[in-house]
Amino acid sequence: MTPGEMEMVEVFTLEGKGRGLKAAKEFWAGDVIFAEPAYAAVVFDSLTHLVCHTCFKRQEKLHRCGQCKFAHYCDRTCQKDAWLNHKHECSAIKAHGKAPNENIRLAARIMWRIEREGGGLTEGCLVSIDDLQNHVENFGEEEKKGLRADVESFLNFWPSQSQQFGMQYISHIFGVINCNGFTLSDQRGLQAVGVGVFPNLCLVNHDCWPNCTVIFNNGNHEAVRSMFHTQMRIELRALGKISPGEELTVSYVDFLNVSEERRQQLQNQYYFDCTCEHCQKRIKDDLMLAVKEGENKPSQDVVKEVLQFSKDTLEKINKARSEGVYHEVVKLCRECLKKQEPVLGDTNIYLLRILSIASEVLSYLQMFEEASGYAKRMVDGYMKIYHPNNAQLGMAVMRAGVTHWHAGLIEAGHGMICKAYAILLVTHGPTHPITKDLEVMRVQSEMELRMFQQNELMYYKMREAALKNQKIQVMPEPTSESPSGLFHTKQ
C-alpha cells in the first residue's frame, strides 16, 4: 500500500467486533481503494512445476531453479525478482533433501521476512504480522493436532543457522495462515494456484452483502523496460458508492448459500458469528429455497426427498468429475434435473448448482446447444440472487455468453458478454487479463452480430465453414472444485 493509499482508509476498533477499515474519502464503483503485494506467498504443492513461483501465472514452459530444482519461473525476470524470498528457501530445501508442504513453506517465508525486517510494522502495512489474529485458542482437537504436526515439520525444515523462534510464536504464524491465508488464482482467474498473506486485507471485515471485492492481479513483467513492470498484488475495489466514514467490507464466503449455512461456514473457518443484515433478516433465503407454486405445489415430503436426491447426486458428480468421467457427469445432471424441475423453483440453489455443472461440462464436451439452455437458466437465477456487481456473477455470465456464442446464438451470446464486461470492469478493472480477453470477445461478437443482422444465411454459412477448419475450445477441463471462499482453507 502506497502512502497515498494509506491516507484513503482509516483503521478503527469497534467493541465486540474488533478492528476494521473505513473509508477516509468517497469511492465509486470500480475504484481501487488500495493494492497490496503479498507479505509472503507460495504455490500449491500440486502445481509447483506448472505455475510461476513469482507471478503465479500458469505457463507451458517454466525455468527451473538450478540449485534446489524445486522453484519454477516464467523467465529470468521472475527468477531475479524472487531471489530475495527464495534465497533462504533454496538452501533449506537442498539441506532438507526435499520441499515441505505449502503450509510449512509459507510459514518459513514469513519467518525469513521477519528475520530480515522484524515482526513490527513494515513499509506500506497498517498492521504487523505480530498483531494479526491467530484464533489458536479457538482450535478444536483435530486442528490442534494438525498445528502440532505443522510445528514439528517446520522445526525439522527450519535451518539451525537462521534465527530461532519459540513454539508459541511459530504457532501464532500457523494460526495466522490458517485464518488469513488468501487464495491466489492464475492469470485467467479459472484455477486456485497458491496461497499468500496480505496483512492490510486482514483488517477488512466480512459482510455477506459487501461494498467491496478483492481481486488478485498477477502483475505484468512482459514490458521490455522494467520501469513498466507491475507487481503481483491484491486489489480492494469498490462495488458501488462508498461514503467517507463507511466501513469497508468484503465477503469471506460465496453468497450462494442460505444464511444459516453461511454463518456455520464462517464460524467453522473464521470463528465468528455473522451479524450482517442479510443473515439476521435471512434476506434471499426464500429465493434460494424456492419451490414450485400454484396448483401443482409439491408437498414438504416431496421437496425434502428431492433435496436429499440433489445432495446425493452432487456427491456422485464430484467423484465423477475428479475421475474425469464427464459423460457420467452429464448423465447424473440430466437425471437430477428431471427430478428437480417439477418441484424446485428457478432460483433454488440446488437446481442452480446442477445447471452450473451441466453447462460447464457440456461446454467442455462441445455440446453447446444443450449447454446454452442450462447456462441461460443458471444466469437468470444468479441475477436474482447475487449482488449486481458480484465477481462470480460476472464470471458466470461470461461463460454463459461464450457458450451461447459457440452455439450460434449470437444475439443472446453478445448480450451476455456485454453484461459480463460491464460487471468485470467494476470487479477486475479494464487492465486485468480476464477483462482484456472479454473485451476482445465483445468486439468480435459485435462484428458477428452485425453480420448476422445484415445477412443471416451468409452468417451461418461462414460460421459453418469456420467450424470445419478449427475446433472450438471454450474453457479448460472442468475441475471438481466448488467456488472457494475469500481465504484459503487448509486441506
Would you write up a description of this structure?
There is one protein chain. The chain has helices at 3-6, 76-96, 102-117, 141-157, 167-180, 259-270, 277-280, 285-288, 300-322, 326-340, 349-364, 368-385, 391-406, 410-427, 433-454, 456-469, and strands at 9-14, 18-23, 32-36, 40-43, 63-64, 72-73, 181-185, 192-197, 205-206, 212-217, 233-238, 249-250. The chain has 491 residues and is mainly alpha-helical. It has a three-stranded antiparallel β-sheet, with no helix packed on it. Strand 5 and strand 6 (72-73) form a beta hairpin. Helix 3 (102-117) packs across helix 5 (167-180) and helix 14 (410-427) runs antiparallel to helix 15 (433-454). 41% of the residues are buried. The model is unreliable at 223-228 (pLDDT under 50).
Strand and helix layout:
Blueprint: H1 3-6, E1 9-14, E2 18-23, E3 32-36, E4 40-43, E5 63-64, E6 72-73, H2 76-96, H3 102-117, H4 141-157, H5 167-180, E7 181-185, E8 192-197, E9 205-206, E10 212-217, E11 233-238, E12 249-250, H6 259-270, H7 277-280, H8 285-288, H9 300-322, H10 326-340, H11 349-364, H12 368-385, H13 391-406, H14 410-427, H15 433-454, H16 456-469
Parallel strand pairs: 9-12
Antiparallel strand pairs: 1-2, 3-11, 4-8, 5-6, 7-8, 10-11
Main attributes of the structure:
491 residues; mainly alpha; 3-stranded antiparallel sheet; 16 helices; 12 strands
Summarize the structure.
By secondary structure, the chain is mainly alpha-helical. The protein contains 16 helices and twelve strands.
